[in-house]
Write a structure and sequence with these properties.
about 210 residues; alpha/beta; Rossmann fold; five-stranded parallel beta sheet; globular; binds P1-(5'-adenosyl)P5-(5'-thymidyl)pentaphosphate
Length: about 210
C-alpha cells in the first residue's frame, strides 16, 4: 500500500526529528518506504540544493530561486518519487511543493498562479496524500536551529518577518487542504511530538484499510 507522506514546517521546527520518528515507525510496521528530501534527494538535485542554499556575490532573483526549486523537484520526482509510488512503496519526503507555496509564495511574495503552473508541469496531478505540518513560532524555530551550531544558509539568514509570512502561508494551506494536512504543535517536547505523530500515522493507516 503506497502513499506519499510529506513533512513541512519553518526552520528548526523539528522536521528532521519527525522524519526519524516516522522512519522508525515504518520500519517497526514492516512498511517498505523510500525516503527523500527537498530540495535534493538525488545526486543532481542535491547539487541544485547546494546552489540554492549557498551565499552568492549577486542577489538571487525570486524567479531564479523558484525555477531552481522546481528543477531539483523535477529530478527528484522523476528519478525517485514517481518510481517508488509506482512500486506501491510509501514515499517519505522532508518538504515538497507545499514548501514552495510557503517560502517562495508566502515568504518572497511570488504569485501562487506561477507556482501552480510549475507544479502541474513537474508533477502532473500527483500530490501528497498526507502532510504533517510541524508548526512553531518562527522565533523558537530559529533559536533551535541556531542552537545546533554551524553557519546559517542563505535562506536561514532571512529576517523574522519572512519566516512569519512562511508560517502564515503554511497555516493557510493547512486550512485549504484539511483532508491531507495534520498540524502538529511542535512547541511540545520531543516525546509528545513523537506520540502525536505516531497517532496521526496510525489513524491514517486505519483509514486506508
Ligand atoms: N525551501 C525548500 C524553499 O524555500 N522552497 C522549497 O520549495 C523547498 C523544498 C531547506 C531550505 O530550503 C527552503 C526551506 C529551507 O530554508 P531544510 O534543510 O529542509 O532546508 O530545512 P531546515 O528548516 O533548514 O531544516 P532544519 O534542519 O534547520 O530544521 P528541522 O529539520 O525542522 O529541525 P530539527 O529536527 O533539525 O530540529 C532543530 C533542533 O531542535 C531540536 C533538535 O534536536 C535540533 O537540535 N528539536 C527540539 N527541541 C525541543 N523540542 C522539540 N520538540 C524539538 N524538536 C527538535
Amino acid at each position: 500500500m503506497g502513499f506519499f507522506l510529506t513533512v513541512e514546517g519553518c526552520e528548526g521546527a523539528g522536521k528532521t526529528t519527525a522524519m526519524e520518528s516516522i522512519r522508525q515507525w515504518l520500519i517497526a510496521k514492516g512498511i517498505a518506504f523510500e525516503q527523500t528530501r527537498e530540495p535534493g534527494g538525488t545526486l543532481l538535485a542535491e547539487q541544485i540544493r547546494e546552489l540554492l542554499l549557498a551565499k552568492h556575490q549577486e542577489s538571487v532573483a525570486d524567479t531564479t530561486e523558484l525555477l531552481l526549486m522546481f528543477a531539483a523537484r523535477s529530478q527528484n520526482f522523476h528519478e525517485k518519487i514517481k518510481p517508488a509510488l509506482a512500486q506501491d512503496k510509501v514515499v517519505l519526503s522532508d518538504r515538497f511543493t507545499d514548501a514552495t507555496y510557503a517560502y517562495q509564495g508566502g515568504g518572497r511574495g511570488v504569485d501562487c498562479s506561477r507556482i501552480e503552473i510549475l507544479e502541474q508541469l513537474v508533477q502532473g496531478d500527483c500530490r501528497p496524500d498526507l502532510t504533517l505540518l510541524m508548526d512553531l513560532e518562527p522565533e523558537l524555530g530559529l533559536a533551535r536551529a541556531r542552537g545546533r551550531g554551524g553557519e546559517l544558509d542563505r535562506i536561514e539568514q532571512e529576517d523574522i518577518d519572512f519566516f512569519k509570512r512562511v508560517r502564515a502561508a503554511y497555516l493557510a494551506r493547512a486550512e485549504q487542504f484539511p483532508e491531507r494536512y495534520r498540524v502538529v504543535d511542535a512547541s511540545q517536547s520531543i516525546e509528545s511530538v513523537r506520540v502525536r505523530i505516531e497517532t496521526i500515522l496510525a489513524e491514517y493507516l486505519e483509514s486506508c484499510l
